[in-house]
Amino acid sequence: MAAEIYKHKAYPSTKNIVMAAEALVSKHPCLKEKGSKTGYEGWKNSLRFKMGNYRTKLTKLSRAGIKDVAVNAGKRSRTYPEGGASRANIKRPRRGEINFLPSYPQGETKDTLENQRLEMVEQFKKTVIDRDMIMIHQHMQRTFALRREEIVNSAPPIAELKDRWPALFCEAQLYSEFHRITNQNLLYSIFVALDKYTPQLLKLYKKRKTGSFGEKMEEVLMAYEEQDKSNIPAAQTAALAGLPLYLKEDSSEVFRTCKDELEAIQDGAVALVAVVNEEEVPAGVPFETHHVSIVLEDQVVMSHRSWTDSLVILFGLIYALHLSYPEKLSGFFEFIQVVHLNLDDGRKQLKPKLQALRNELK
User: Fold this and answer.
1) DSSP letter (8 states) at residue 84
2) Are 186 and 316 in contact, with CB atoms under 8 Å apart?
3) Residues 6+ apart with CB under 8 A from 44
4) Which end of the chain is more exposed for a tag (fewer CB within 10 A), N or C?
5) Whole-angstrom Cα distance, residue 219 to residue 112?
6) 35-53 pLDDT, tens digit each
7) Rounded distance, CA 197 to CA 335, Å?
8) Which CA distances in Å does 190 have to 198, 240, 272, 303, 341?
9) Helix 232-246 crosses helix 211-225 at what angle (to 10 degrees)?
10) What is the pTM for the complete model shown?
11) What are the start-end ranges of the E strands in 178-313?
């Protein structure tokens, strides 16, 4: 059972373990536990511990290329007292990642994958029209394991990643990378969710007009009222811009506006900077922009015409580059992850304010 579960996920959630235990007693009724409400409580606990033991066994085989377990090897133990604390810096899927740290494709080695990476770098030295995009896509697919190994294990600077993996900062390949990690179409899923939740969110915002955040929310709604009501992107922008206020989070360091492009690379490791015409943007919501710059580690890494699309790109980059959510907007990004994209996998309990909002939207 542990071996079969591992084929799907090295670190299964409680929900996954329950599904496996339930399937076991359904397939083999003679294993159903007498006196148990579900009939598989004991099996659930046994499978949870068995998976831990199975990963420990695979750790000893880390040289065989089992990377998602080997990455957490070398922790302090009775036989290895100088190692790191057993629970320190554990690297495992935390955001519904299906392919967190895969092994190399069959027949490939680090050297062969590195050669493919170098071929892609050479392609990006050519003009856009001369690049072999089919070859780039195929190589990105094959080198996924090498790229994840590098990003998860070493966490190199963004500038270095841009030099080594330039395709990762192209919109189409970024969405493909998100799909490789989560098995979900980011662009489609998030806009389907926005279509569903935008009207509900705007109704909720109209009820919250007290306190300092309420006053700012009223400014956002007044700015939205001035927009064309048939403008769907404007409604989506208002819904997303108002979400931090509803959650009582400060978005000023991440969502910024400016007139001068040079301002886009100032202040803040992670930011979405809308370049606009006006000195003053109503309620700070960029309904109309020249373009929007996505900033990581104080440098512009990508840009887009639409503010909403830029936010989707930023979310994709956080997954692709294994970044943490901006501290002051952790609730905002977690809401997108769990509610908009349903990437919670049943693993953790939502914060009370996020759970309350999710209940309001049901």
Assistant:
1) B
2) yes
3) 17, 18, 21
4) C
5) 56
6) 888 888 889 889 988 888 8
7) 12
8) 11, 12, 18, 19, 6
9) 180
10) 0.79
11) 255-258, 270-275, 291-296, 299-304
